[in-house]
Amino acid sequence: MATLLHRLGLASVRHRILVTIAWLVALVAVGVGAGTLSGATANSFSIPGQESTTALALMKEKFGEASAGATVQIVFEAPAGQKITDPANAAKVAQIVAGLGELPGAVAASNPLDPKAPTVSRDQVAAYSSVTFPVQPSEVTDDQREAITAAVTEARATGLTVEARGEALSNPADIGGASEILGVVVALIVLALTYGSLVAAGMNLLTAIAGVGIGAAGIVTLTGFTELQSTTPILAVMLGLAVGIDYALFIVTRFRHELRRGLSVDAAAAMSVGTAGAAVVTAGLTVVIALAGLSVVGIPFLSEMGIAAAATIVIAVLVAITLVPAILGFIGTKALPRKQRSVPSVVVGPYAAVAPAPATDELPAGRGFIRGWARLVSEQRWLSLIAAVAALAVIAIPFFSMKTTLAQRAAEGTTQARAQAIIDSRFGPGITSPLIVLIDGPDAVQFGPQVQKHLTTVLPEGTLVLPPQPDRAGTAALITVIPTTGPEDERTLDVVHDIRDSINPAEGTRVYVTGSTAVSIDVSQKLNDALPVYLGLVVGLAFVLLVLVFRSLLVPVVGVLGFLLTIGAAFGATVAVFQWGWAADAVNAGSTGPILSLAPIIIVGILFGLAMDYQVFLVSRMHEAHAHGAAPRDAIVTGFRQAAPVVIAAATIMFAVFAAFVPEGNDTIKPIAFALAVGIAFDAFIVRMIAVPAALALLGHAAWWLPSWLRWLPELDVEGAALERHPPAVDDNATPSDQVPAGV
């Protein structure tokens, strides 16, 4: 692989004009596609084949599109000392409802004071109207949302308290906010400090942005042909930008090292792709496998998100091994700090080769902070390991109380949150978590009253079971069940199970439980069941990969255990902030409660790939030093001293990019971005910088032991060591037609 990548890097730098133009054309092409072919995205989650999802499809067939479409609840509350049923207030409500029925896209607006179907609180202080749209929530347009908001604002002029809630008011995640730009700025600062060159820092950042732009625009284009989740593009941007910057960082760092060794620009670019590029490809492949592996859990929307994000990673890898060396060919020795460029150089063909001045960019063998840290950790190995494990274990404690849901909570201070508060206090939380019992069959109308009577007797006291509503053909009926608890309460889950377990349908008749609450329960259960399976898959993959990379059994064990510590601490911190509410204001959490069901499995997939990235890059240097005869502890110090600065810079950048998506992200993105940010920090600065070197120091020679019966395993040269031992010749006098000679 190293030789092939060396050839690719050499071809890219020598044909840099063609390579750069090709990537620019790709960027423009997908940009045009995103602007002209993009379609609507989904903002809800369901799994085909589940009872609740099947019932939704039947409802559309039997009762029309509006029966399973988007709804918005307009909540009215009378002024203090008054009732909503007072004649003056009732007239105001009737006038407002008439206007709601005329909203763009709406097909109906219920009258809460209708004697046949009133929706008035028991104390008659509040009421709500349901505005129905014949489409899914994600298909409600921005203009229609603005019309709802404007109608609510106008209605408040009547003196009533008027608020609105519902999934149709939720806007899909946007890309490119101020907070994301802040993450890019932080990345640029870290790169500039790392390189000591604004030219190199800017090049690194621009290539990453080009790659993530192609990936995100391609996903947006794809929405015109298939329905994707609204969070898929922003997830791809977040992950693609972070790894794109890091992968380019690895290549550029090695390029600078090769320039200092005296190689020409062409040879240095080719060698950087052949060596560091091999680690980039390995790391990228790990992330891709982890993300694509989300398909094994059998959840379509999760598979789509994983594959889309994996495609963005593939693009980031391709950019790193082709576009980055091409741009390096343009900037040449400007990738070095100004003082180092002044070293006398000779011209080999049309390319400047830095004279053999500094032989390496490694830290000196003296004291230095990085070297001192490595020696401290390896000498105080028991204390270091225990302290690291104990710290992460304490942070992971909240993980054991983690709850998940698909129910979206409104941020505090919004009209949705105020509407929810009125409903909870006046009607009870169960109003926002209705369950729909669908009876389907030729005898559905006759069987409906029996089902209603049965549910009234078996469900908890206070549960409201409304009379059945037949369809026009008389082959189906709907019964609405309003529990006493909200959609996130365990008792609501028990009600769903009670309904499903207790009804024995008549022959030829089927009974389903559906509605948004039932869909949320079913999807959450499926995701929770899939998480242990997926975690076992990625842990097994990590073990096999590390065995192949390091030809050892104990190093993979250390790496896998370190990954589990990272996952536990990341989940623990996320639960503490987003479920318990600790320091929620500091990250602008908006609302707190159970974690979004799809977040844990996505976090596991992404963190797995990134953790293995740092493990491979750091420990491979230790392995290389040990293979060259260094004693175990000396190999740890040497490898740590070489790799730690780049890992620290890469982790800092990745933390900044992920953290930037937390303050202004939507409810789906915030906990995921937060968990990834803290997970990267825990993994890079505690697991890889403390726990792993301490554990390897304790193991000594045994760390690199491989049983004889496994000697047949192939050896993966992820650092291109063979290429360094036998570097291929580079003809610096070759000048392809698309090259610009140095100095022109």
Which key terms come to mind for this protein?
about 750 residues; alpha+beta; five-stranded antiparallel beta sheet; 22 helices; about 60% helix; elongated; MMPL_dom; transmembrane; membrane
Structure notes:
With 744 residues, this protein is an alpha+beta fold. Helix content is 58%, strand content 7%. The chain has 22 helices and 13 strands. The strands form four sheets. Strands 8, 9, 10, 11 and 12 form a five-stranded antiparallel sheet that branches. Helix 12 crosses helix 20, helix 13 packs parallel to helix 18 (554-579) and helix 17 (516-550) packs antiparallel against helix 18. Residues 343-367 and 735-744 have low confidence and may be disordered.
Question: Secondary-structure map with pairings?
Answer:
Blueprint (H helix, E strand, L loop, with lengths): L1 H13 L1 H22 L13 H13 L7 E7 L9 H14 L7 E2 L16 E7 L9 H14 L5 E5 L12 H18 L2 H25 L9 H29 L4 H28 L7 H32 L6 H4 L3 E4 L2 E4 L14 H11 L1 H16 L7 E2 L9 H12 L8 E6 L3 H15 L5 E2 L3 E2 L5 E7 L7 H13 L7 E5 L1 H35 L3 H26 L15 E2 L2 H29 L4 H29 L8 H31 L21 H5 L19
Parallel strand pairs: 7-13
Antiparallel strand pairs: 1-3, 1-4, 2-3, 5-6, 8-11, 8-12, 9-11, 10-11
Which blocks of ≥5 consecutive residues have pLDDT under 50?
343-367, 735-744
Helix content: 55-70%
Radius of gyration, CA atoms, in whole angstroms:
30 Å
Number of helices, where a helix is a run of at least 4 consecutive DSSP H or I residues: 22
Separation, N- and C-terminal Cα atoms: 34 Å
> What oligomeric state do the depicted chains represent?
single chain
Overall form: elongated
Helix and strand content put the structural class at: alpha+beta
**Mean pLDDT across all amino acids:** 84
**What share of residues are in beta strands?**
5-15%
Give the strand tally.
13
Largest sheet: 5 strands, antiparallel
